[in-house]
Amino acid sequence: MITKTELDSLAKQYENEAFIKDDPIQFIHRGKSKEDSELCGFIASLFAYGNRMMFIKVLNEIFNRADNDITNYIKNGDFSNLKGLGYRFSKDYDIIPMFEILHKLYTESNGLEDLFSYSFMPDRGEKYDHFLKKVIDYFYARAPIGAGQGFYHMIPDPQKGGAMKRMNMFLRWMIRKSPVDIGIWDFMKPADLYIPLDVHVARQSRAMGLLTRKSNDYNAVRELTFKLKEYCFDDPVKYDFAMFGFGVELNKKQRG
Asked: What is the tally of structural domains in the chain?
């Protein structure tokens, strides 16, 4: 099993500004204000799956159509220029309703921070899935009649057992303060976060001896997060960068 010293070294090595340019977090750094950053990040997280070059291309197209002013675009409420846009499971008839719900959220409240902070219970993770479920329910309750897979794939239901990678990634961006994460929300602490688990992170964490569960599901997220708390209770998800770094180093060795 990897040691704390080794894990901390990898996390420190790869958590730097150079990480931003090729990662979906680049969009959150485009924000012109706190409100703009949270919207940029949330929208980026909806599409951050599959081939990285492809979803970044789609996100750039969305931001271009919004004249790179996503807050005014959302608040204006006219999303007709998103017609014809799609990415994998999600087509324009899935994407436009999601933007319409965000418009309603920012019309009726202070936006995403209000929604997430109202839903959060400071319980150190034991009911973390319930917190996410409350957030998801806001969107599901306003989904169009007959909304299909493309809509629900953008914002999946945690009670179905999925890893909730994109939502956990978005929360990492918003809660942690580091050279990469912007840490502009303070209703929860980094200690409350869960690891953003994808195939890559799961594979590396098993290679490190940190994860035993075979399925990349919500139980695996819990197992890995609580294992990482043994290394750093106050900030377990900083090791997301270590998983990335471990994969890079492993690939170099295999090629060499």
From this structure: 1
